Amino acid sequence: MEPQQRSPLLEVRGNVELKRPLVKAPSRLPLPGTRFKRGPDRMEDALEPEKKRTRGLDTVTKIATSHPRPPALTVRPQTQSQTTAPKVPKKTGPRCSTAIGTVLKKQKPDPAVPAQKPGAAPPTLGGKKPTKRPAWDLKGQLCDLNAELKCCRERTQTLNQENQQLQDQLKEAQQQARVLGAECRTLEGELARVQAQAEQGQQELGNLRARVLELEEQLGTQQGLVQELQKEQVGLQEERRGLAARLEEQERRLQASEVALSGSQAEVASLRQEAATQATLLVAQGERLHGLEMERRRLHNQLQELKGNIRVFCRVRPVLPGEPTPSPGFLLFPSGPGGSSDTPTRLSVSRSDERRGTLSGTPAPTTRHDFSFDRVFPPGSGQDQVFEEIAMLVQSALDGYPVCIFAYGQTGSGKTFTMEGGPGGDPQVEGLIPRALRHLFSVAQELGGQGWTYSFVASYVEIYNETVRDLLATGTRKGQGSECEIRRAGPGSEELTVTNARYVPVSCEKEVEALLQLARQNRAVARTSQNERSSRSHSVFQLQISGEHAGRGLQCAAPLSLVDLAGSERLDPGLALGPGERERLRETQAINSSLSTLGLVIMALSNKESHVPYRNSKLTYLLQNSLGGSAKMLMFVNISPLEENVSESLNSLRFASKVNQCVIGTAQANRK
Ligand code: ADP
Ligand code: MG
């Protein structure tokens, strides 16, 4: 029964001692106006006192409710407690209230301590029941009752005070509760804000995670790239090593080359010296070569002169498919004194005199006509063989000697074939014109090595019925171009030119072929208006050749004329003269006139007559510069192999023989 024996004063003192640290303990409540710092831990701390306060208030409420049961206290302890009660600081937090509560709670279960006052009835309220006064001791009982009443009054007063205090505390606590409620709301607001921030943070976190993923992915790619680059680097390092090795090799070679170069330089120096010697020698050689070239030209000319400045070649065309085979012995090609190895120069034509045979009744006797020319080409001779014979003559034109080549003969004897070539563009049957030009171009190129430069200008005209027409006309003038006139190139000039005719510079055989093609087209167009005009007209292809040796100041110029003459046949005197025949007669007379003029001109030149009748025909006038004293002339007499053409063949052969007998004076090169 120790607690019941304990003095209430000690009890109160003990309570006071217990209270002190509680009172002095610093309040953990935030001071009004204290700002909470953000952060979850701080928030925890901030919220903690609230809970604690709530617990404190609960305790206070408990006290209030437990109040109606007053503890059984003795008077002294009551007084003692009254003296200690005011010591409680007015403004105590919930802990203070708790302390008070604790005190009160502790007081409650305390057993009533018996009164110490001697003589007085023990006033203990609880614990051991006081001994009852005897019934007779009324005074004592009254005294007890008074004492008890007084005690109760005091107790009531104390309790009232306490009640007042507690109400004050309650008010204060309510005030604090309001403040705390406001704080709580602020904190809730703060919490909401923090939550929003947290959400935002979450969102940001999510974004950051996504970003992290993305970056990780990028990192993966970059790592892959890095690996690739590393591989590449390894490859490049390998390559670098290879290149370094090559460089080293090259450097070694360079050094070797430099050594070789220095050797070569010495060699070059000696070679330069040698080259200088050679150059001097070359100049001397050039001089010699030029001298030799001039000598060659002189000798070449001498040779041509020895061959004759006017030469006649006879060419017999083969019998064409469908033509009657001539009787054997009609045309014979007797060998020369040297036998069959000699180049043929003779031709025999056997002609049977039918009239004499008919008159006497005996078989017609044959008359043999022998002809001799510079060269005779039997029917089997090819174009190349023919050209071979005239190549040297053509070359004379490059040396500055005018050259003129005619094809004479009746229509169908092979003049056009000889001059232009056969049909179909077969190179085998190419005529003299394309062959001669190709030869000239090639020789001119060779002479270019000796310092000579050549230029060639071509023209192609036809003379029909004493009118000159351009065969190279193009456009509207094609075929029936306006008439051309032969004029002197300038006053006092020996050179002749054809007005309205095209003079086309040529430098290769393709250009020449194009011109020949154009001439063929022009003739074809003309043929539609005037039948067979081509065989009734002279075609004159002329090439103006100009050469220059700039180094030596030498120049030479000469025309090369290639003439396909009109058919030499004469009109049959037995034919009746209708309107067509009259026209034909006029044509023939014009042709015959120009051909006989050609003969006369050649004769006059041969006989060195003072007057040469060039002007008597357009043909001789146009060819004036190609027939003069310095000119070289070649006439092809084309013969048909047919017996039916024997009369015309003999006429042609006779004309050609006359020409062949002519000798035109010594040729002079047209040098300037
Ligand atoms: P011309 O011009 O004298 O009237 P052409 O040259 O037109 O005669 O020849 C008449 C025909 O004879 C043509 O069909 C031609 O191809 C042919 N001819 C002429 N000469 C020869 C030859 N040497 N070889 C083959 N055919 C030829
Ligand atoms: Mg012809």
- Radius of gyration in whole Å, from Cα? 76 Å
Distance between the termini: 174 Å
Average pLDDT works out at 78
Supply the number of helical segments: 15
Bound small molecules, which ones? adenosine-5'-diphosphate, magnesium ion
Instruction: Characterize the biggest β-sheet.
Output: 9 strands, mixed
- SS class: alpha/beta
| Poorly predicted spans | 1-128
Helical content, roughly? 40-55%
The gross shape turns out to be rod-shaped
Order of helices and strands: HHHHHHEEEHEEHEHHEEEEEHEEHHHEH
Number of strands: 14
Hey, roughly how much beta strand do the residues contain? 5-15%
Description of the molecule:
Strands 1, 5, 6, 7, 8, 11, 12, 13 and 14 form a nine-stranded mixed sheet that branches. The protein is rod-shaped. The chain has helices at 2-5, 8-24, 40-66, 75-84, 94-107, 138-307, 354-360, 383-398, 415-419, 432-448, 509-529, 579-606, 618-622, 624-627, 646-661; strands spanning 310-316, 331-332, 346-352, 366-372, 375-377, 403-409, 452-464, 467-470, 486-488, 496-498, 504-506, 538-549, 554-564, 632-639. It is 54% helix and 13% strand. The protein has 672 residues and is an alpha/beta fold. Strand 12 and strand 13 (554-564) form a beta hairpin. Residues 317-318, 320, 409, 411-417, 422, 535, 638 line the site of adenosine-5'-diphosphate. Magnesium ion is lined by residues 415-416, 534-535, 564.
